[in-house]
Amino acid sequence: MIPFNVPPKTGSELKYIEQAINSDKLCGDGHFSKKCEAWIESNFNTTKALLTPSCTAALELAAILIDIKAGDEVIMPSYTFVSTANAFALRGAKIVFIDVRPDTMNMDESLIEAAITPNTRAIVPVHYAGVACEMDTILTIAKKYKLWVIEDAAQGVMSTYKNKALGAIGHIGCFSFHETKNYSSGGEGGAILINTPELVERAEIIREKGTNRSQFLHGLVDKYTWQDIGSSFLPSELQAAYLFAQLENAEAINNYRLSIWDYYFSELSQVINSDKLPYIPNNIKHNAHMFYIKLDSNEERTDFINYMKKECITTPFHYVPLHSSPAGLVLGEFLGNDIYTTHESSKLVRLPMYFAMPHIDQEHVVNAVKGFFSDD
User: What are the contacts of 197-200 at 24+ separation with CB within 8 A?
Assistant: First the structure.
């Protein structure tokens, strides 16, 4: 089988992990953590980057950082991973889901303002497939109503919106370095980007179990104590060492993935209508996180997946909308009409895409897709 995903490897991971082991410091905030954070800050122009054990942890840290509490409301798309909603529901917030745009599968920015109430505290744009949401509009609305913008940029590392890195545009951004993402920290991992300077000190405290240990390690205080609520939001040095090997080669990984994406698009646009293929708006650079196709129906999608399986190709679908899930029905509300979220997501299927995917496998995927549509 051609797998859907293979975690990226650059060749330096074991060397850096061995260096971390030999340093005799394996807990968080060591040498490789600092190198990764400095790389993110330098390349993405964020005030402060802090590695976390996952993007889930980054989102949960963000929810604590902006003081989300019971009775607050947070606006986001329903078409996203459960962590996007869970992070805020854990603090007692009501999740307000709005419809997506059918072209990008991102939240429809034109629906945000109607979803705002006196209880609204934050907007959480999710950059689906590494393609940016319409951030200018979102930021304008947030400023008007004094709302936080927390970017779920789990899929958006190395993507930009009007030359600004995703994750570094809102007040806070959250990255994923899970093995399914373009860059991995050894299977699990993430980062929080603090783009609002006044939040940095508290973010460091929350991340260190609510203590000012970070200030102590920097020599700013002579002892550290419990200062605030918090949790253990630090990854190990082994994860950071693995990740640094990836970040050092971020451009090469990005370019290789883009070459696969471009090849898929060039070949498949010959046989598939453009409205069934990914759409990239102007002023946006994506990171080739994903290449998807939309079929005509859920039934045709099932036929497609089965056809590709016979061709030894793995082609999974993606999220089931959160508002229709058992927890979503209790913890959230879909505001307005579900015109596109359920309908479009039920037709979407993803093609294999990973760093170092052999071109012969890419050709086989393309030929199989063409075969399905010609038979169809």
Answer: 197/47, 197/48, 199/65, 199/171, 199/172, 200/47, 200/48
pLDDT value for 347: 98
CA 202 from centroid of its chain's CA atoms: 23
What pLDDT score does 376 carry?
Answer: 61
Cα–Cα distances in Å, from 277 out to 126, 127, 322, 326, 373?
Answer: 19, 17, 23, 31, 13
* pLDDT, mean of residues 315-328: 97
Distance CA 131, CA 107 (A): 11
> Which tokens is 52 given?
């976390």
d(CA 99, CA 308): 30
Task: Give percent above pLDDT 70 in the chain.
Answer: 99
Q: Give the pLDDT of residue 213.
A: 82
Q: What is the pLDDT of residue 232?
A: 94
Report the candidate in 174, 206, 196, 150 with the shortest Cα–Cα distance to residue 54: 174
88 close to 148: Cβ distance less than 8 angstroms: no
Q: How far apart are CA 227 and CA 208, in angstroms?
A: 10
Return the closest-CA partner of residue 149 out of 71, 45, 65, 44: 65
Single out the residue of 247, 195, 176 nearest to residue 16, CA to CA.
Answer: 247
pLDDT of residue 279: 98
Quick one: what percent of the chain has pLDDT higher than 90?
95
Sign of the CA dihedral running 276, 282, 284, 288: positive
Identify the CA nearest to 153 among candidates 195, 98, 120, 117.
195
**Whole-angstrom distance, CA of residue 243 vs CA of residue 184:** 6
Per-residue pLDDT tens for 60-69?
Answer: 999 999 999 9
Query: Mind listing the pLDDT tens digit for each residue in 116-166?
Result: 999 999 999 999 999 999 999 999 999 999 999 999 999 999 999 999 999
Nearest to 245 by CA among 7, 6, 50, 5: 7
Q: What are phi and psi of 149, to 5 degrees?
A: -120, 115
Q: Who contacts 112 (Cβ-Cβ below 8 Å, separation ≥6)? A: 75, 98, 123, 137, 138, 141
